[in-house]
């Protein structure tokens, strides 16, 4: 006869022998079997997580096929700009700085035309301004003697970086030129510091600026000519769909939903300002009015 008895550690199985005594049944334990079961459980959980992730990713792309197209556009832009690195004549033509064009495509190519144009213009302006100032400071420092040169370079980096960083807290600068201010800080610091050990600083700055111009121009062409996604149209559709849902379905617009819509609309309106005329939206379209409607 077999019975079980509760214990502090769980169930305890006993067998009643013919002589009336009982014997506790102890299950056989196998260390490698336990490890195998745990490993199998971990692998199964990982496979299920991957399946769930890819399912959600597929549903995201199906809901908005423009995301798939955007991925193809980024890949196309990188392939084209990589030719400046793979082909020797193009590589020599940019002075061996073709990698800067590749990096530019990676960091400035965004989903909408407005956001891409915003980053491209900010990068060009920030890089150009920082490069000109860095070359000017380097020329002044080089004429001041070997002892004062590092002092002037260090002081200029300190003062200009402080000023540019503080400008990022100004609402107008932060809304429209925050990326440009960051690029200005990066470029000025790199050119000023590296210029102390580089003889042909002007040539180096010119080559990097040309590769950045190539990368930004390619991003704009691909973004605007191949299935363009306009931030202005997305903003218009966002506000229109939200208010249509409220009017026709009598949906209650909670404070959280309203804040989310206003935040998204603010970003889209900022990017839409940079876009050229497209569709039903001409130059100087009153994008700020959408923010008032959303508020």
UniProtKB/TrEMBL annotation:
Key words, A-Z: Ion channel, Ion transport, Membrane, Transmembrane, Transmembrane helix, Transport
Subcellular location: Membrane
Transmembrane helix listed as a keyword: yes
Keyword Transmembrane helix annotated: yes
Any single GO CC term annotated in Swiss-Prot or TrEMBL for this entry: membrane
Biological process, per Gene Ontology: malate transport; monoatomic ion transmembrane transport
TM annotation in the entry: 68-86, 98-117, 124-142, 148-167, 179-198, 210-232
Pfam family name, one: ALMT
Membrane disposition: Multi-pass membrane protein
InterPro entries listed in its UniProt record: ALMT
PANTHER family noted in UniProt: ALUMINUM-ACTIVATED MALATE TRANSPORTER 10
Family: Belongs to the aromatic acid exporter (TC 2.A.85) family.
Protein name as catalogued: Aluminum-activated malate transporter
Organism: Papaver somniferum (Opium poppy)
């Amino acid at each position: 006869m077999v019975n079980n008895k509760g214990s502090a550690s769980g169930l305890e199985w006993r067998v009643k022998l013919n002589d009336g005594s009982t014997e506790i049944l102890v299950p056989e334990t196998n260390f490698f079997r336990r490890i195998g079961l745990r490993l199998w459980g971990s692998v199964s959980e990982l496979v299920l997580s991957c399946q769930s992730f890819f399912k959600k990713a597929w549903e995201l792309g199906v809901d908005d096929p423009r995301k798939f197209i955007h991925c193809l556009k980024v890949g196309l832009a990188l392939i084209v700009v990589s030719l400046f690195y793979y082909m020797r004549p193009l590589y020599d033509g940019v002075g061996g700085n073709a990698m800067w064009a590749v990096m530019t495509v990676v960091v400035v190519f965004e989903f909408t035309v407005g956001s891409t144009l915003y980053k491209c213009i900010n990068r060009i302006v920030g890089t150009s301004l920082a490069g000109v100032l860095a070359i000017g400071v380097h020329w002044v420092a080089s004429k001041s003697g070997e002892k004062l040169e590092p002092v002037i370079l260090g002081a200029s980096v300190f003062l200009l970086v402080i000023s540019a960083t503080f400008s990022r807290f100004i609402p107008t600068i932060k809304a429209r030129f925050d990326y440009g201010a960051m690029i200005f800080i990066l470029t000025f610091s790199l050119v000023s510091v590296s210029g102390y050990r580089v003889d042909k600083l002007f040539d180096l700055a010119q080559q990097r600026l040309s590769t950045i111009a190539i990368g930004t121009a390619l991003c704009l062409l691909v973004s605007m000519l191949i299935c363009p996604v306009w931030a202005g149209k997305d903003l218009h559709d966002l506000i229109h769909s939200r208010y249509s849902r409220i009017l026709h379905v009598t949906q209650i617009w909670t404070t959280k939903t309203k804040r989310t819509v206003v935040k998204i609309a603010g970003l889209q309106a900022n990017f839409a300002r940079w876009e050229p005329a497209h569709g039903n939206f001409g130059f100087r379209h009153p994008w700020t009015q959408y923010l008032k409607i959303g508020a």
